[in-house]
Design brief:
By secondary structure, this protein is mostly beta strands. It is built from two helices and eight strands; from the N terminus they run βαβββαββββ. The protein has a single domain, classed as Pnp Oxidase, Chain A. The protein has a six-stranded antiparallel β-barrel with strand order 2-3-4-7-6-5. A hairpin with a 2-residue loop joins strand 2 and strand 3. The longest helix is centred in the first third of the chain and has 9 residues.
């Protein structure tokens, strides 16, 4: 019997986060859970950086809030993979993509501080659907 998962250490989690560009922000709207796929990049301090429309529901909901951010990969052939979750406070920050830009883009930069990171592998599994 194989274990159902292996816990990843912080260094492994950071490496996997840095290797991807699409993740999911998990937050609440009116006390209900919400999940939104977003493009992101990892900052040097381990924070997750993303861009969103200024004044959007996402920005209004997560600014100053504790949120989760999840990235995963699953091999569709055998079901193996991994998942990494970051928990931290989200804040709108100075436009990190275009600092000092005189041309407004309508987008803001959001930083999710990496206050807690956890990850695990997913073992191969029988993925047949009957």
């Amino acid at each position: 019997m194989t274990p159902d998962h292996t816990t990843l250490d912080e260094r492994q989690c950071q490496r996997l986060l840095a290797a991807r560009s699409l993740g999911r922000v998990v937050y609440t709207v009116g006390a209900l859970p919400a999940v939104l796929p977003v493009r992101y990049r990892l900052a040097g301090d381990g924070s997750v950086l993303l861009r969103a429309a200024a004044g959007s529901e996402l920005v209004r909901a997560i600014s100053g809030a504790l949120v989760a951010f999840e990235v995963s990969e699953v091999d569709e052939a055998d079901g193996s993979g991994w998942t990494v979750t970051v928990l931290g406070r989200a804040d709108v920050v100075e436009d990190l993509a275009h600092p000092g830009s005189a041309e407004p883009t309508g987008l803001v930069s959001v930083r999710i501080r990496n206050e807690l990171v956890a990850g695990r592998t997913l073992p191969a599994a029988d993925v047949r659907v009957e």
